[in-house]
Amino acid sequence: MLGVLVAAVAGLLLLLLLHGRWFPFLWADLGAFVALDEVYTFSDMERRSNRAARAFALRLGLQPGQTVAVFLPNVPAYVWTWLALAKLGCAMACLNCNVRGRALLHARSAARADIVLSCSELQAAVEEVLPDLKQEGVRVFYLNSTSPTPGVEALLPAIEAASDEPMPQYHTNTTTASKAIYIYTSGTTGLPKAAVVTEMKVMMVANLARICGLRENDIVYTTLPLYHSAGLLIGVGGCLEVGATCVLRAKFSASQFWDDCRRYNVTVIQYVGELMRYLCNSPRRANDREHGVRLAIGNGLRATVWKEFLQRFGPISISEFYGATEGNAGFINYTGKIGAVGRVNVFLKAFASFELIKYNVEEDEPVRNEHGFCIRVRPGETGLLVIKITKSTPFHGYAGDSQKTEKKILRDVFVKGDAFFNSGDLLMMDQEKFLYFQDRVGDTFRWKGENVATTEVEATLAMVDFIQEVNVYGVPVPGCEGKCGMAAVRLKPGQSFDGESLYTFTRDTLPIYAAPRFVRIQNVLEITGTFKQCKGNLVKEGFDPNIITDPLFFRDEKKKSYVPMNPNIYANILDGSLNL
Ligand SMILES: *[C@@H]1O[C@H](CO)[C@@H](O)[C@H](O)[C@H]1NC(C)=O
Ligand SMILES: *[C@@H]1O[C@H](CO)[C@@H](O)[C@H](O)[C@H]1NC(C)=O
Ligand SMILES: *[C@@H]1O[C@H](CO)[C@@H](O)[C@H](O)[C@H]1NC(C)=O
Ligand SMILES: CC(=O)N[C@H]1CO[C@H](CO)[C@@H](O)[C@@H]1O
Fold first, then answer.
1. What topology does CATH give the domain 444-574?
2. Residue whose CA is at the smallest distance from ligand 4 atom 7
3. Closest Cα partner for 265 from 238, 247, 239?
4. Ligand 4 centre distance from Cα of residue 344 (Å)
5. How far apart are CA 153 and CA 146, in angstroms?
6. Separation of 146 CA from ligand 1 center, angstroms?
7. Which protein residue has the closest C-alpha to ligand 2 atom 6?
8. What would the pLDDT profile of 339-371 be if each residue is shown by its tens digit?
9. Which of 191-205, 334-348, 396-410, 488-502 has the lowest mean pLDDT?
10. Is the pLDDT confidence value at 533 over 60?
11. β-strands 419-429, 483-491: how paired?
12. Which ligand is nearest to the CA of 221?
């Protein structure tokens, strides 16, 4: 009963061993990649990656162990570049192709990649950061036949001239512990963190689709970005692993979704919760149920959307999984229980010892008993998911940031000296041991009936040219439901706060309910102890100008600017005469 194993990503290890293989890719000429209307069979990809590997080694002088950043949209080149780098024993840092400017530079340097591979479609974004990259000694290339940018070489001619003779899939020095990929997770401190994904993790995650029921004759439709693990490792990796066909689309489109599924005879789709919500919200069509999709693999699907989706689009199996890129274990619903992300069983407990512990949301920290240890929650209660860090469930942390890595580790949980990965997620287990995702710790608050994801707001504000670092949280306002958005900001050295430009920027980039109503300027954002405590104190101090000595600003919708907060405005908010 292999199916039983699959609840934990850690359990996949066993599955792999049963299959007797250590490396994930099956090189049969079975599947294919279809992107727009370019079709690559597996052997096309294999030959193309051989050429690329040789050209990279020769022209870029790549050495095993080096990291190369790719800054590409969802294109077939992503796949052969990945394979080529694997053959050279190089790690690939997957830069988010929507990120610009300072955030892009940060992502590059976090992975210590001194080569960036991009393409001419991203010319403007590349040119914006090129002077900085050059100064940092970084070389940039386009995977195209010509380059429109001076100082950026076109690499395609060299690739096409190289030999496509077979070469080993992996460098001899590659082991399961080698760093394979860096995936950026939107961190709680604004700038993304580069999570290290080892070869072992690549194998385990690429096996997830198989475990969810992906078969060789399936056609998988991937609209998720390849710079995240769901698209790259589960989608593309999963297809490579079982020999299925992958239909790659540059961007998700709700109106094109089912037409694409029909046109390419898609049998399996990948989703995130929002994607399913968009599909459910799109206008009904007579042919909503005419498709060959039998399975959907993804995460973040709420029970209500899940029901609606099935009612509207027909009987599709849904494999909802739970897991963080950097996490050391995950779950899959292998039962089909609506809303559940998985079910606990002995196997899971044996492979990944996880616990749900009591969490104090106000204080933003786990509750500890009189001996200083954490407390397990009872069935039906929501608790913080923590997963024991062991040899078989290791935690690899974030590149070049031991401080952030340490912050994800919870120590002395049940006995002195133990260590758990702090998932930052609140889950609930019911009487029948089904697990349900509830919320992210400190990451979301509700305002005007909408969920505000602080990480998204932070990622957006991080783009503002005078902002160095930002921390977003919700503050209670007397007489208002939910919490009102507030941002603590550290300015770039030598820059000053510009209320009008921040107003315009947030109006253009954020939904109105997500734009922070209050901004507080701090000069010590990152050195105020651990991040969680720091958010807790900020929430406590709220937006009271009588307490806060930092410069404090209020978003004034009439003046279309962030204006200095004063006791007058404060009093008007409290007595309700100024309606937020
Ligand atoms: C540039 O290269 C990318 C990656 O290989 C490719 O997808 C794109 O079509 C190329 N663009 C042009 C104009 O050739
Ligand atoms: C492979 O590893 C060995 C032992 O660590 C080292 O001596 C050798 O230089 C490595 N080979 C390459 C090509 O990096
Ligand atoms: C989809 O299936 C139909 C019927 O089997 C076939 O005629 C068509 O060529 C297939 N489409 C693609 C893109 O493979
Ligand atoms: C991995 C797995 O078994 N997933 C199951 C999740 O639930 C659906 C039903 O909605 C099942 O069909 C899947 O097999």
1. GMP Synthetase; Chain A, domain 3 (3.30.300)
2. 336
3. 247
4. 15
5. 8
6. 9
7. 173
8. 555 555 444 444 557 788 998 865 668 999 999
9. 334-348
10. no
11. unpaired
12. 3
Distance 264 CA to ligand 3 centre (A): 7
Rounded Cα–Cα distance for residues 197 and 31 (Å): 25
Is the domain defined by 341-436 classed in CATH 2.60.120.1440?
no
Select from 71, 143, 145, 149 the residue to mutate for testing ligand 1; criterion: most ligand atoms less than 8 Å from CB: 143
Most confident of 149-158, 190-199, 213-222: 149-158
pTM (2 d.p.): 0.69
Q: Note whether 239 and 215 are within 8 A (CB).
A: no
What pLDDT does residue 439 have?
66
pLDDT band at residue 451 using 50, 70 and 90 as cut-offs:
low
2-206 and 444-574 share one fold: no
- Identify the residue whose C-alpha is closest to ligand 3 atom 5: 265
Would you kindly state where each structural domain of the chain is located, as residue ranges? 2-206, 341-436, 444-574
Residues in the chain: 580
How far the first Cα of the chain sits from its last, in Å, is: 57
CA of 265 to the centre of ligand 3 (A): 6
**Tens digit of each residue's pLDDT (9 = 90 or more) over 538-564:** 888 899 998 899 999 999 999 999 999
How many CB atoms are closer than 10 A to CB 479? 11
- CATH code 3.40.190.10 for 2-206: no
- Atom 7 (ligand 2) nearest CA: 173
Residue 426 is inside which H or E element, if any? strand 419-429
Question: For 119-123, 192-196, 450-454, which range has the lowest pLDDT when averaged over its residues?
Answer: 450-454
Distance CA 119, CA 27 (A): 27
> How do strand 38-41 and strand 32-35 relate by DSSP bridges?
antiparallel
Q: Is 344 exposed, middle or buried (0-12, 13-18, 19+ CB in 10 A)?
A: middle
Among 279-283, 331-335, 403-407, top mean pLDDT goes to 279-283
Q: What is the DSSP letter of 381?
A: S
User: Of the residues 293, 319, 337, which should be mutated to test ligand 4's pocket, given the most ligand atoms within 8 Å of the CB?
Assistant: 319
CA of 143 from ligand 1 middle (Å) equals 7
Taking CA atoms only, the protein residue closest to ligand 4 atom 2 is: 334
Ramachandran class of 181: left when φ > 0, alpha when ψ lies in -120 to 50, beta otherwise: beta
